[in-house]
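Dear Dr. K.,

Following up on our conversation at the group meeting, I've run the structure prediction for Bifunctional uridylyltransferase/uridylyl-removing enzyme from Williamsia herbipolensis. I'm pasting the input sequence below exactly as I used it, so you can double-check it against your construct before we proceed with anything downstream. Let me know if the numbering doesn't match what you have in your notebook.
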Amino acid sequence: MPFVTSGDDSHGDHAEGPASDSTSNAGPSPSPDRSSGPRTPTPAAPAAATDLVDARRRLLRTTDGTKRADAPALRQILVDLHDFWLTTKGAEIGVRPDSGFAIVAVGGLGRQELLPHSDLDLILLHDDMDTARVSEVADALWYPLWDAHIKLDHSVRTVPQALQVAAADMTAALGLLEARHIAGDEALTTLLISGVRRQWRSDIRTRFPELVDQASDRWRRSGDIAHRAEPDLKNGRGGLRDVQMLGALAIAQLTDGMANLRPDSPGAGLQVAYNRLLDIRTELHRIAGRPREQLRAQDADEIGAALRIGDRFDLARVISDSARTISYSVEVGLRTAGNALPRRGLAKLRRSPVRRPLDEGVVEHSGEVVLARNAIPSKDPGLILRVAGASARTGLPISASTLSRLADFAPELREPWPAEALSDLLVLLGTGRHMVAPIEALDRTGLWGRLLPEWGAVRDLPPRDAIHTWTVDRHLVETTAYASTMTTRVSRPDLLVLGALLHDLGKGRGADHSIVGAELATQIGNRFGLWPQDVATLSAMVRHHLLLPATATRRDLDDPATTQAVVDALGGDRVLLELLAALAEADSLATGPGVWGDWKASLIGDLVRKCLRVMDGEQLHRPDPLTDDQRDRAKAGGVHVDIVGTGSMHTHLVTMIAPDQPGLLSKMAGVLSLNGLRCRSAAVQSYADSIVNTFLVVPAFGDPPDAGLLRQQLLQATAGTLDVIARIDARERDSPIPTAPPPVTDPDGAPVAVPALFAQAPPKVLWFDVEPAGTDTAGAAADSGAPERVVMELRAADRSGLLSRVAAVLDTHGVTIEWASVSTMGGTVVDTFCLRLPTGTPDGDEMRRTLADAVLTVVPPPEPPRENDDGTSAAGVPIG
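The predicted structure tokens came back this morning:
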């Protein structure tokens, strides 16, 4: 988010720093040392260099009534002026064709992108001429420029000397890759340029790691342009040097440097983004009157007006858009280049990478998420979300060619969305910080806007409050990432992450963003296919997302009227209250450092507790009644398995009926997991000495297995000849597809990809009383020795075979499952079990603690806290 401290950069204007070195020992340096003290100007110094300075000054003057040249025209005029002076001066001092001398430009002049206050980066190239003659020509070329106070980076080289410097110095090599002939012996310049490029291509395999390290160091020093208050347009991540680095990789034939961006994608492609930043930097030089690279807030309005962009906020939005486009292109370019590096030795004998399935139509290939060979994007609108979800779950990047293919052929989802599309979106939003990269990739290629057309109003929108760290769209993603760590706190984790994603979507529209956002949330909720009551809750979340923090910090919490006002505003909805409490924390954490702390947390927590005391108790979920057909099969006995479609492309309904026995639910769920069927929801009931289980499943890949195979495996499991839990564990251990790639660290040593096996939110077990022991279902007194009936609710991150493992744990402790309702909302499960505890349980509370501890041993543990730069966790708590 462009516009904080300003600073100057006295380096040259080349790809990775000065391309010349006048003190190098690779060749003679006939020019005297300019730092040794004042020097009397040489009589031979012509007035032409002074004329050059005067021409530059007149060109930059805007008060004499002449028409002001725009940024591209200004750069071209400056290039033409300097080319003309150098060509004329070269002819005057004998630097002509076939003279054995050549004047070569690098840096901004070499790229023909000379800015008003850029240094001149020049090389005097000679064909191993006499030292005295070289000194004479060099003095005649350099001294007029020095005497005119023109900043100059210079060197004098033969072609072999220049190649030697380029081989040893990455900065020099990058500068010479952009060299351009100005005057003199063109064959000599051609020999240098062709030699440098040939050397660069042959050595790129060994030099590529150094290039990446150099860029990473630069990014660490200068920060991310898109989210800095006063960005460094040249050196920051997403800046001009990054595009020049991509050009160097393109010269090495490792990438085309364009990242397959469509012209209609945000940023309009890499070249447009580069030109925008270059124009802004040009105006920054012109306005500052010096070679400033860091855009200061006080200059932003003037620059925006000069470029006809608008005010500082409009300018910040353009900069953020351009920088994010460049950042994405650099990420793709570096990854493509790394994969394209030439192999040597035994590496040439490696077999081609194997394509491993990740989801329906999605596979992993060479460390990237790509489309399966049989995937048809034009006939599968949900493929975009499955690709993004697979990327977030595994930590693998999405292939640029896959994104391009999806952008070209994937149609829009029909409205309302199919249930599996919403589920895939929830999986993506439930992966915490792993969602940021795939969402950014979708956004830069125009696919995210296709899913959420309303996103365009907040894309790259700078906040009006300086306390915000991110642009509005990135703030929404950051809030969702924090909210995904709180999904086990609430009974509706799906609405929590959706509300986090949409809560500020009404900004940038000229009205109260909470009111506008609530209307947009209703529109989007209907598009997603949510139930009407869920749409109402989602809209209320957006409408009231500031209610708790505003009330807690500005009103008297001891006044009963304050609590009653909140309860009335929420309609007494406990679910909405708990969602807003979690959203308030996630929103604060995503705003900036220090926004969420103990003081604010205690105030909101106190307000929520007061509101809960006013509200009514919540109702426990009950399963739907059985159908007549299910009752008849249960009475008949035997094992029955049916699989039917639901009308959706990838969702199926599996009904399993079998005589009751200990651990039956675990065995049924285990059979489904062994066959790659992910359970989205389940209803478990008993009737006539049989168990009737209905599972809504999604195949991990391809079509579901035949019902006969599932029945055969279920018979084996009930007979004790198939240990489903052991088979699931063995499959996880032996799977060729890791849940996530090996941990990768960023330049600061922080992990950038952690296994998705780790839950984003801590698992939680909640208990609710059905009725006290000794009471029958009608409420009448029963035998005092009857077992206690309770409801256990498990909230945790999903994993393979989780339902089977939990049911097995409950069975091991002698607990009877009377009914169960299982829901998978994205990557979070909310499983409700009605349990009958063993007869004669001495201490019910102790039994519940024992069961809870046992259940938590089979659910994924929470992800370790990430450490911030200040040594605190993501929640601001000191680590260690």
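Two things stood out to me. The radius of gyration is 34 Å. The domain at 223-342 is CATH 1.20.120 (Four Helix Bundle (Hemerythrin (Met), subunit A)).

Best regards,
J.T.
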